[in-house]
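User: Run a structure prediction on this.
Assistant: Running it now.
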Amino acid sequence: MKEEKISNSKHDEYVPPKVWKWEQESGGTFANINRPIAGATHDKKLPIGNHPLQLYSLATPNGQKVTILLEELLAAGHSDAEYDAYLINIGEGEQFGSDFVDANPNSKIPALVDHSTAEPTRVFESGAILLYLAEKHQAFMPTDASKRPEMLSWLMWQMGSAPYLGGGFGHFYAYAPYKMEYPINRFAMEVKRQLDVLDRHLADNQFMCGDDYTIADMAIWPWYGSVVLNRAYSAAEFLDATSYKNLLRWTNEIDARPAVKRGRMVNRGFGPLEEQLRERHDASDFELRTQDKLEAAEKEG
């Protein structure tokens, strides 16, 4: 009896082996940096600037969470939140350098090293960095202990939900080597459910924690706001994202914040040159050292 196969475009059903082995790249965007083992691949020192807070990151949604918080802290008058930010080019495998792996053994951006402590304190995972900075500066988290669980719940909701959006829907819709109906439909259904969760909650709340703008908003907005604004995956129309009116209102309100605009620019190595601040060491860098100005100065010199 012949084995029955299910056709998916021109690709037949995959039959898993008894023991999986990494024998070739999976294909699609980012395939060259994916591997089934951890640890450093090469020796590379990380630069250290003049401020106690040293950030090593890239302006992906996870990276934006932290730079938005740092810029919001500075805008709120927390001068001790000044920081140096260095771009980690994940496409070139810089996250596998020895110093970066020391800062984050998971080899993912962002990674923060706080040199204000007796021994430098490393913090990795974007949610952990948000909590660390908010607690350190006592800002953008509820002062009322009874409201703290709500903030933590939405923060953890984002950490658990976004992989379905990015690694699930985003990968198969935008980055996979070919379009596959089953995974796109599966993850589109889940992403739309998540958008509906947010939309229903924001019908009765200005921000994720009522009237308080918190790190929960800063965690959720780079992922879900970017989808609604069609900045991620070019999928807003496919997902009918603008039909989520309460989510759209919240998204636009946060998008208009000056600190958010600055935070989106830090460690950005893609998009319009005027929106790229690949390294950030001082507030004046936003005016003087965006990539359009650096390249113009290089041509003139």
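The beta strands are 53-57, 83-87, 111-114, 121-124.
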